[in-house]
Specification:
By secondary structure, the chain is mainly alpha-helical. The protein has four domains: 157 residues, Neurolysin, domain 3 (Orthogonal Bundle), CATH 1.10.1370; 65 residues, no CATH class; 164 residues, Neurolysin, domain 3 (Orthogonal Bundle), CATH 1.10.1370; 244 residues, Neurolysin, domain 3. It is built from 28 helices and nine strands. Strand 7 and strand 8 form a beta hairpin. Helix 8 packs antiparallel against helix 12, helix 14 packs across helix 22 and helix 26 packs antiparallel against helix 27. The longest helix is centred in the middle third of the chain and has 32 residues. The radius of gyration is 25 Å and the shape is globular.
Length: 705
Amino acid sequence: MFLDTIKARIPFVLLIAQTLATNTMAQTEHTNPFFVEYSTPHQTHPFDKIKNEDFLPAMREGMKRQKAEVDSIVANPEKPTFQNTIVALENSGELLNRVQLCFYNLMSAENNEELEKIAVEIAPEETEHSNYISLNEKLFERVKQVYEDCKKANLDVEDRMLLENTYKGFVRSGANLNEADKEKYREMSKKLSLACLTFGQNVLKATNDFELLITDKSDLSGLPEDVCMAAKERAEAKGKLGWLFDLSYPSYSAFMKFSDRRELRQKLYMGYNTKAYGGKFDNQEVVKEIVNLRRQIANLLGYKRFADYVLENRMAENPGNVYDLLDKLLDGYKPFAKKEVAELQSFAKENGADFDLQPWDWSFYSRKLKEKKYDINDSIVKPYLELEKVKKAVFGLATSLYGITFRKNSEIPVYHKDVEAFDVYDADGTFLAVLYTDFHPRAGKRNGAWMTEYKMQWMENGVDSRPHISLVMNFSRPVGDKPALLTFDELTTFLHEFGHSLHGMLAKGKYASLSGTNVKRDFVEMPSQLMENWAYEKEFLDGFAVHYQTGEKIPQQIIDNIRASQNFNTGYACLRQLSFGYLDMAWHMQTEEFKGDVAAFERKAWSKAIVLPEVDGTCMSVEFSHIFDGGYAAGYYGYKWAEVLDADVFSVFKKNGIFNRELAEKFRREVLEKGGSEHPMALYKKFMGRKPKTDALLRRNGIIK
C-alpha cells in the first residue's frame, strides 16, 4: 500500500527567502525552517530543526501564497493558454505542498497529540482553501477555455493528460455547480474532511489503547522464544512486569499463530476486531457520517452513487466492471476456500479440537497444518531472513533489474532514530532519489506498511527535480543479541512496498501531479505486487538467505517447501480480500441516507465471501482505514484487479528470465517512468503488447493447470 494522505498537484521549489516570513510571523529566536532555503543534502526536510509549532503558520502562509498565485492567474489579461493557466496552476502552492507532505507523513509515522490537535484545527481551513481553487468561477472559465481551445492543439501525451486531469478535476469538484450548490459543496467537503480525520485518529487511539499483559509464564505456551523476549522488552519499556502483547502486527500475528492458549487468542482477536467499535473511540457514527456525506456530494455533482463518481476515474470505469471481477473471482476461488476450511476443521479435530473453528483459531491451526504438509513455518524460515541481509538483497534486486544502487547518507536528517536515509543512483552514476527506510513499530506510528513521498519528481526549466521517497514498515525489532528477523510474509511485504518505492524513485515526468504513483488507483498496486513474485524464486533467495548464526545457506529443501506452500489456503486468502471489496462497494453504492446498524450492514454486504463464523460484537468497518481514512473508497477491489495484472506481467519474466535486464528496462521505460502521464491500459499494452488476461493469476494460484 502507498500512503496518499496529500495528493500533491504542484512542484516543490525550495528557494524561499527568510524575509518572506517576517511579514506574517512575529520574530522569535526559533526560525521556522519552512521559510528558509534548506541547506540539507538534496534539500531534504531538516527534521532536526522542524518543531510542531512550525506547521500551522507555515501551512497558513502556504495557503496565502497559493491564493495569491491563483488570483494572479485569474487576473492575467492575456488570453488563457496551456502555459499561463494550466501549467501555472500546476506550479502553484509550492510551500503549502512541501509543508503538507511533511506534516501528514509524520501524522502516520511519528504522531503525537500536538500534531493531532493541529490537524483538527487546520483541516477546515485546508478544505476551504481547496474549495477556493476548485470552485473559483473565473479560474474555471480560463481552464475551460484552454480545454476547449486545445482539443485540436498539438499537445504531447503528457500535456494533454495534465489538461484533461485539470479540467475534469474542476468539474468533479463542483466547478459547474450554481452558487447555492457550491456553498453546499463547501460545507459538506469540510465536514467530510474532518470526519475522515476523526476516523483515523480514533483507530490509532483504539489500537494503542489495547494491551494484553501476561504475568503467568505458563500462558506463554507455544510462543517462540524471540516472540516472548520481544513481549518482555515491550512490557519493560512501559514499566510493567511480565510479557506485553499489543495490536501491532508483529505482536498480534505471532501470538495468533503460535499461542496454545485459545482463550487468550480469543481475547486478542476481540481486541483487534473491536477497535473503535463502542467505547470512547467509537467510529460507528463517523462511518455513517462519511458514507452519507460522500453520497450527498456525489448526488450534488450529478452521480447516483459515490461509487459511480469514483469509478469514472479508474481503469474499471463503472461498478458493473468491478462486480464482474469480484464475482468471477468468487466463483473461481470459493470452492477452494470451502475445501480449505473443511480440511483445517478436520485437522483441528484430529489434533484434539472438540469445537468448530472460530476466526481466532484460523492462524493457529493453519500454521500447524502448513508445517505438517510442507514442513515450513515462520520459526524455520526466520533465521535465514535477517533484516539487514534482506534489505541488501532487495536493494540488490533493483540493481540487477534496473542498475540502480543505494548509498547510506548519514548527513540527511531523519525524523526518528530508527530511520535511515539513502542516496539512490542510476547505472550511469546520476542521482535518482532519496530513500528513507523506517522498519520498526513504536507508539505514534500506525499499523501496516506503506510507501510515501516527502517530495515528488518533476521537470523544472529543463532540470529533473528528483523525488524523496519513504518506505515504512512495522517489523519486529532486534531482541537481545538476536538481530531483527523477518517472517516470509514480511519479506513479501518488504518487496511489495519497495515496488511502490521503485515507482516513485524511477519517475521521469514533467509534472508532479502525474509523477510516480500518481496513477489511477486500481493500477497503482500492480508494480508493487509484481515485486512480491521474486520472494518465491530460488535464484533470488539463494543470493542472500543464510542462517544468522551459522552462516549456512538456506537449504534447498526449505526453498522447495516455500514454493510448494505458495498456494496454501490461497482460496481463503482470496475470499478475504473479496469480502473487503464487496464491503467497500456496498458502502459506496448507497442511494439513500444510511441510518442503520453498521455491523448488521457489514454482515449482509460481504456475506457471500465469508467462510468462517462471524463473531458477535466485532465490526471491521469502524477500523477500515483504507476506505474511510485513505484513498481506497470504492477502490479496494483494486488489489485484486492489480493482482491479475501483476501475475500476467510476471509470467513474461518467468518466460524470459527473472533477472532479464532488457525486459526490466522495458518495464521501467514503459510503466515505471511514465507514472500517470498516459492511461494505464495504454502503458500496459505497450509493455505486454496486449490487454491483460486472468489466466496467469488462476494458474499461479493453482485454480487452473
